[in-house]
Design brief:
Length: 240
């Protein structure tokens, strides 16, 4: 059985703003993808719809879906990111932390922005500034949606929160220095967190994905029987 991540990369093109999540759910039903992949796609779109509703009931439903799916690919991670953003709207900070931990395949532009804004709203300035430093520390071109950058929305939230704090001169100085650096090195985006969340997921096959093979399948009798039928391997065996 192929790993979920590879299967997903062969089929995914969802989200974006041209077609609503509700309409995309209908399109998934007509897709030729297998059931497991359809479930991941469906869960992501439901999480997007729940994010838009901003209700406690919707948040609970999304959390259940994310926990069930686990953190297996960019689609499941985007579901977790939508749910983290939903929790942030409702100021459910523990839920924000839990969901972000299950969004490891999500583009850092999304998770960093959610994390910085969430920490700012909790007045956890040192942690928020440390997260902002990470945006400058890493370089990884793996996502079509965005890599290590930060939304202006998150920067504004952190700036406003520090301003409102008494005796915050040193923190503001540190923030301004980091803000200048993320601007200088192109590590900020004018997209809102919501726009980042709805960025289309369009993934194609890559060499690294194509090389991945399930080690358990390679050990199976089915695989061994298959190898025996390959002509050039049979010839090699005769030579030896």
């Amino acid at each position: 059985m192929l790993p979920i991540k590879k299967a997903v990369t062969q089929t995914v093109s969802i989200l974006g703003r041209s077609v609503s999540p509700t309409e995309q759910l209908a399109l998934i039903k007509k897709s030729s993808a297998d059931r497991e992949i359809k479930d991941l796609l469906r869960q992501c779109l439901i999480s997007a719809m729940n994010f838009e509703s901003s209700s406690k009931e919707s948040l609970e439903k999304s959390k259940t879906l994310v926990r069930k799916a686990g953190d297996t690919c960019e689609i499941s991670s985007r579901s977790a990111a939508f749910t983290a953003a939903s929790a942030m709207k409702l100021k459910k900070w523990n839920d924000v932390d839990e969901m972000l931990q299950m969004a490891t395949y999500c583009p850092p532009a999304i998770t960093s922005s959610i994390r910085v804004k969430s920490l700012a709203e909790q007045s956890k300035f040192n942690e928020a500034l440390a997260e902002l430093e990470k945006v400058l520390m890493f370089e990884e071109e793996v996502f079509s949606t965005g890599n290590y950058s930060i939304s202006d929305e998150a920067l504004d939230a952190l700036c406003d929160a520090i301003k409102a704090e008494p005796e915050s001169t040193e923190k503001m100085k540190r923030f301004r220095n980091l803000q200048r650096l993320v601007t200088k090195y192109g590590r900020r985006t004018d997209k809102s967190i919501e726009d980042l969340l709805f960025s289309p997921i369009r993934l194609g096959n890559s060499e690294s994905d194509e090389e991945k093979v399930d080690p358990e399948f390679m050990k199976s009798q089915k695989f061994q029987d298959f190898v025996k039928q390959i002509p050039y391997l049979k010839d090699e065996k005769l030579k030896s």
